[in-house]
UniProtKB/TrEMBL annotation, chains A, B:
Membrane topology qualifier: Multi-pass membrane protein
Keywords: Membrane, Transmembrane, Transmembrane helix
Entry protein name: SulP family sulfate permease
Native source organism of the sequence: Marinomonas aquiplantarum
SUPFAM superfamilies (UniProt xref): SpoIIaa-like
Length: 578, 578
């Protein structure tokens, strides 16, 4: 942890923090707090938890990340994807609404936090690279649909649970006769209003003469307006008596967590989910951080980000809440409200704390359906069909990986979907590298350049064959080269020298080394000598430690040109005369 | 199946097959049959099956492979590793000695055969490349130890089963009081004799004036001599009455297989094991085939090999026997006996059939302990400590993959071991490629060559940074480049142009494309232009289908030299004057 060694990352901006900055950040935080309240509560409901835990999860984690993270813009708190995975992991283990469910959510945040900190300390951040772009894309689109469908129950005022589309739909149909009419009417109105605000409010405000920035920010306040309207409405008409589910009494005590009743099996069952939350949350968060940092030419350090997000999750667990990460919409709210430094995150947290202490009675009559509706309207934007089409035109295989991830997440489950997606990505990559481009090359007349004999008019030398392999040599393709070379000498019986041109080989592993030794031995016993040319520095460093070089009967040439000159020496004069 | 389209692979040698060849192959097959009888019966016992099934497995599969395979030397039949995996797969599902056990072995051969044929038809042979050299090495060493320990029970005359070293040892200790003294005495003598023959017989025969080749072949007859001696001994002393287990009556009917009682669960339980047998058997077989083919400059076609071995396994199932593959010791016996063509495999099979019909009474008193002892003596040679040391010096990571495979196979089980090994290999490879060598390069003065600025005295141009990445660009490292470039412009605020030199990039996938677009966008918003140079043909073909190129504000240069010339144009004169 280099950065920690130099003190908190926050020191970088805290040192030059001025009173003027404080005023700007303060104003921004005040606005952001108002906008983030319904969002945070909505994501808590999405996770299957009481709404007020969304506020809990927006306080301590935000402060911790502001001090430990390397992004100056990123806002950390409850986020749609991590909340959805939370629900998907805990649902099979506990009843939503039970104390056990809340305990497991807290535990999940804690374990995810520990995973992230461990990945940071062990520099294992590269594991997150396993999530290829097609897998993430398929996962997010399918999750968005799952989230939206999962929220429908709140819009209808019924109970329904399930880990995939089939389970969810079946459970909803089973409870179809329990639909609550007042809830349904409120939901329909709210969805209509939200879509209207989203699509037209900003335009209308602009035509009214407001600046583009103010108009955008105000249009984001749409949900807040809806929250106020519906809360008043429910309170005046006592709709909670008619079966409309409301946020209700908010407990200010930390939830009582009883880990003594926790079984080892449960912990094991949580581990894959916790890992998924860590990895998916981290990847999403870092992309958001990078996209905001680039504009300001700031430097995001992935390893420190792992640490910061890990600490934020542990902080969330300690405050009795659920997994958090850096979110795109939170960050947009933050920056468009005018936040300049991570101090805004700290101040937003403090405002949120004040809300929690003094203003919770205001949320008593807020209907859950409104929170659910705002999630649905926001989340469906994440379904990205264009991305599939784009990838399909670029690579059919990768489009297949995307589609497989999408459908498995939708119809089987999130964890299985991710595993299938990663496996397919790896498989296609291995397929690609195990079908490397191998070419026999010859010299472009009059130059020192060597090109594919099948594509260019080039000179070759009798009895000498030069093979160029355009791929790393490792276990996935080691035997391919072996097959190619041995097949070549079986077909061309007059070959005396084979030169392996390694200009595109960036690594050689033990399997490839083994194959090269086998090739060398077998060529020897067939009376053919194996040579190498243009081996890269780092590859040569590795080969020097091997018996391949000491047992090699042929030579190692710095350049392919030198190889051909040396090997064709006896007939070189004749060739130069051509 | 190109080759099948042109007729049987066997047509290549059958067309020019002469009467003289038949005489040579006939003599060789006669010798080979005698030598292969104890070996084949031993491997049947190793698989937990009646000894005579080893003879069954040596007939039809050998004929089928001779007609369909591409190797002229490879001998196909029961082999140590596949027999061991067979036992390890079936033991949890049925009692050794039961009819169900035999049925499952037959089914396993059939399913493995189908897997191999499918892999051939779908050209999925590259899947076998997943087995990296360290994983195979660790697997074979550990399996050899497991096999040897598993055979100990026959030497002691007790019952003991288990899938790993711990289970085996515990079960042997549990039955330690049942050790059969006559069996133990025979075993000790036999092991002593076999080791003596192995180490000294060949030398002694050579000092007696025999040619090196004859001496080696005769020393291979050591086990046959031991078989004869002990069989006579047991018969004369009626040691089978004293508890010495013997081969006994050999049934000539095909085993009655009852697949109707087979449950779907059982079939599912067999699948991973069948896949393991296919892959491990194929990899081992192809290496043996390649090593014998190279000497004769013959061409082994892996895809046709998959088909040939698959058909051989299906043939084995049809003859009521267990999984087979091409084996090293079988092939050595075959070629050193003087076999010239695959006809030897067919003739050996026919001799084996004659033995089965007319000579089985001779094996009645053959003790199982002798077969087990010859397996132990042969198999322990496969434990390869030197290979570990060699790999350790080449790569600590790969040595770790070998060690992990070794210990997990030994202490947990063969399938888990292979999975752990493959996962570690993939992980280390991904770790490697996700830490690519990235260098800022500059021009070697007076040349068109560009080298790492940290290693060479090179010229750089103000405001232009050229970055060379020495790795394929794909999901495992896409974000690494993103982090590198964005970090670079965060640190060097005066950069106006970034040139990405792609001379070592052999592939770009959708994730990398996404990262490149992100880099391009973010550089744009930071006022920096992104350019590319030296993109390879196949990579450029792919990029043309993407929006990266159409949205690129910078240029694509054929060579790095052109890039620097074009971008530094205003100050080029000054530079050339230096």
């Amino acid at each position: 942890m280099k950065i920690l060694g130099r003190g908190l990352p926050a020191m970088a901006w805290l040192r030059q923090y001025s009173r003027k900055d404080l005023a700007t950040d303060g104003m921004a935080s005040f606005i952001a707090t108002i906008l983030l309240i319904p969002q945070s509560m909505g994501y808590a409901i999405l996770a299957g938890l009481p709404a007020y835990l969304g506020l809990y999860a927006s306080i301590l984690p935000s402060i911790v990340y502001s001090l430990l993270g390397t992004s100056r813009s990123l806002a950390v708190g409850p986020v749609a994807i991590t909340s959805m995975v939370t629900a998907s992991v805990i649902l099979p283990l506990a009843m939503p609404g039970s104390d056990a469910y809340v305990s497991l959510a807290i535990l999940l945040a804690f374990v995810s936090g520990v995973f992230l900190v461990l990945m940071s300390l062990l520099k294992m951040g590269f594991l997150t690279n396993l999530l290829s772009h097609p897998v993430i894309s398929g996962f997010i689109s399918a999750s968005a649909i799952l989230i939206a469908v999962g929220q429908l129950k709140h819009l209808l005022g019924i109970q329904a649970h399930g880990n995939n589309l089939i389970e969810l739909t079946q459970d909803m149909l089973r409870h179809a006769d329990e639909i609550n009419l007042p809830t349904f009417i409120i939901s329909s109105l709210v969805v209509g209003l939200l879509v209207f605000f989203k699509k037209y409010l900003s335009k209308i405000l602009k035509t009214l003469g407001l600046s583009s920035e103010t108009a955008n920010l105000l249009s984001k306040a749409g949900p807040v307006l809806v929250v106020v309207l519906t809360t008043v409405c429910v309170a005046l008409l006592s709709l909670d008596q008619q079966g409309v589910k409301i946020v209700g009494q908010i407990h200010l005590a930390l939830p009582s967590i009883d880990f003594t009743s926790l079984e080892t099996d449960t912990l094991w069952a949580l581990l894959p989910g916790a890992f998924l939350i860590s990895v998916v949350g981290f990847v999403g968060s870092v992309s958001v951080a990078q996209s905001f940092a680039a504009k300001r030419k700031e430097d995001i350090q992935p390893n420190q980000e792992l640490f910061g997000l890990g600490a934020a999750n542990i902080a969330s667990a300690l405050s009795g809440a659920f997994p958090v990460t850096g979110g795109f919409s939170r960050t947009v709210v933050n920056t468009s409200a005018g936040a300049k430094t991570p101090m805004a995150g700290i101040l937003t947290a403090l405002f949120m704390l004040l809300v929690l202490f003094f203003l919770t009675p205001l949320f008593y009559y807020l209907p859950n359906a409104v929170l659910a509706a705002s999630i649905i309207v926001a989340i469906l934007q994440l379904v990205d069909v264009k991305d599939f089409i784009r990838i399909y035109h670029f690579s059919k295989q990768e489009a297949l990986a995307l589609a497989a991830t999408f459908f498995v997440v939708l119809f089987v489950g999130m964890e299985t979907g991710i595993i299938v997606g990663i496996s397919l990505s790896l498989l296609f990559f291995l397929w690609h590298t195990s079908h490397p481009h191998i070419a026999v090359v010859g010299r472009v007349p009059g130059t020192e350049h060597f090109r594919n004999v099948q594509r260019y008019q080039v000179e070759t030398t009798p009895n000498i064959v030069t093979i160029r392999i355009d791929e790393n040599l490792f276990f996935a393709n080691a035997r391919v080269l072996e097959d190619y070379v041995l097949s070549l000498i079986a077909q061309q019986k007059d070959v005396k020298h084979i030169v392996l041109m390694c200009s595109a080989v960036n690594m050689i592993d033990a399997s490839a080394l083994d194959s090269l030794e086998t090739i060398s031995d077998r060529l020897n016993s067939a009376g053919v000598t194996l040579h190498f040319s243009e081996i890269k520095g780092p590859v040569m460093d590795k080969l020097r430690q091997s018996t391949l070089i000491t047992n090699l009967t042929g030579q190692i040439f710095l350049t392919q040109h030198q190889a051909i000159q040396a090997l064709s020496h006896p007939i070189e004069a004749q060739h130069q005369g051509e």
